[in-house]
Recover the amino acids of this structure.
């Protein structure tokens, strides 16, 4: 199954890692990385861990894989 999400609705969306990443499980999309030129598609987002505030950059399409991410805080 695929998480259905549109790239324009990513900012501030909430995600749960199926397997915790460095003891962090809940994340918030804190930044959408806009490509150059802006007319092209969004490639990456920054997700921020709720617990540790650690920030990591990932390809936004990874969030569509429900074996890795669940939409919302589960």
């Amino acid at each position: 199954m695929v998480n259905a999400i549109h790239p324009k609705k990513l900012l501030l969306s909430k995600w749960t890692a199926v397997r915790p990443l460095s003891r962090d499980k809940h994340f918030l999309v804190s930044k959408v990385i806009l490509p150059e030129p802006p007319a092209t598609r969004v490639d990456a987002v920054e997700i921020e861990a709720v617990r540790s505030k650690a920030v990591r950059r990932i390809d936004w399409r990874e969030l569509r894989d429900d074996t890795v991410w669940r939409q919302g805080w589960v």
